[in-house]
């Protein structure tokens, strides 16, 4: 893996950890702002109210989350359905956490 890819992966891991910090702080509005603005702008996207409600239920059920490990697969300069190239990371089923019960 190149240094540039390592740097991007580290940045994405920091962003993911920041999301969970915000989640644990119940700052659901800031969590919502972390969704890609292009996605949030779509009429089919989850609203802030829906997102806050879902995250509140999640945290109410599971409590605070402590990240143990994050596995990421980066895809840089991938073509999309338009003319631009995009970069994205796949996190699906590779964030491991433990529930922190009070």
Give the arrangement of secondary structure elements.
Elements: H1 3-24, H2 28-33, H3 37-40, H4 48-62, E1 65-70, E2 73-79, E3 85-90, E4 95-99
Antiparallel strand pairs: 1-4, 2-3
Please outline what is shown here.
With 102 residues, this protein is an alpha+beta fold. It is built from four helices and four strands; from the N terminus they run ααααββββ.
Number of domains: 1
β content, as a range?
A: 15-25%
Q: Major sheet: order of its strands?
A: 1-4
Q: Strand pairing plus helix content: what structural class? A: alpha+beta
Q: Taking Cα atoms only, what radius of gyration do you get, to the nearest Å?
A: 15 Å
Shape: flat
The biggest beta sheet, please?
A: 2 strands, antiparallel
The number of helices is: 4
What is the helix content?
40-55%
Low-confidence stretches: none
pLDDT averaged over residues:
80
What is the total tally of β strands? 4
Give the termini distance in whole angstroms: 40 Å
Give the topology string: H per helix, E per strand: HHHHEEEE
Structure explained in plain terms:
With 102 residues, this protein is of the alpha+beta class. The chain has one domain. The protein has helices at 3-24, 28-33, 37-40, 48-62; strands at residues 65-70, 73-79, 85-90, 95-99. It is flat and about 40 Å long. The termini are far apart. The relative contact order is 0.17.
